[in-house]
Amino acid sequence: MSFFFKGSRKHSIWMLMAIGISLTVILSIRVSASSANTAKQTQPIPNTVVIDKVFVDKSERRMQLLSGDTVIKSYRIALGDSPVGHKQQEGDQRTPIGTYVLDYKNENSIAHRSIHISYPNAADKAHAKSLGVSPGGDIMIHGQMNGFGHLAWFNQQRDWTDGCIAVTDDEMDEIMDAVKIGTPIEIVE
User: Fold this and answer.
1) Which of 96, 119, 147, 169 could form a disulfide with 112 if both were Cys (CB 3.0 to 4.6 A apart)?
2) Longest pairwise C-alpha distance within the chain
3) What is the 3-state secondary structure (H, E, C) of the chain?
């Protein structure tokens, strides 16, 4: 690293300038992406709209809120680190496939708010028992991990949960307001 030694001052200046320009470019891209996401935001879901189903397509990383057959809102989601296939057991990093119910809301979650999915059902429990394993549980739709909401622009580009369905914090706020307890959720591959 001779550019930091006395006598190579002009190399040090060039290196610092290159680092500064690189940081400026990275921050500019991040601000541009954030601005683009803000510009893409649509109107909030009116209180008069009844969300009667949540539909999740794991392969498309897409969650939709439906009223009848009409898609009211669609979200880009992140899943578990091993998203392909149905959840078999605790710790497999998979999101279950099937029809469940959103059965309670959690305002004191380790992530920014959450809604619990009623996994495991009776069939999931029986299957896990036949394998001699625990089916797992605590599958949620949730926002970003507490304190990391500002990283949603990055986190939502990859699968990072333990089997849950993740959205941004702002999206989770909207979902919590629009979706009522008892709403069915269908999750497909």
Assistant:
1) 169
2) 75
3) CHHHCCCCHHHHHHHHHHHHHHHHHHHHHHHHHHHHHHHHCCCCCCCCCCCCEEEEECCCCEEEEEECCEEEEEEECECECCCCCCCCCCCCCCCCCEEEEEEEEECCCCECCEEEECCCCHHHHHHHHHHCCCCCCCCEEECCECCCHHHHHHHCCCCCECCCEECCHHHHHHHHHHCCCCCEEEEEC
Mean predicted confidence (pLDDT) in 79-108: 95
Q: What is the pLDDT of residues 16-50, one digit of tens each?
A: 666 766 655 454 555 444 444 443 556 889 989 99
The pLDDT of residue 37 = 47
Determine if the peptide bond prior to 120 is cis (ω within 30°).
yes
pLDDT tens digits, 108-161: 999 999 999 999 999 999 999 999 999 999 999 999 999 999 999 999 999 999
Alpha-carbon span 141 to 113, nearest angstrom: 9
Cα angle 168, 172, 174; round to 5: 120
Hunting for tokens 């999101």 — which residue is that? Answer: 95
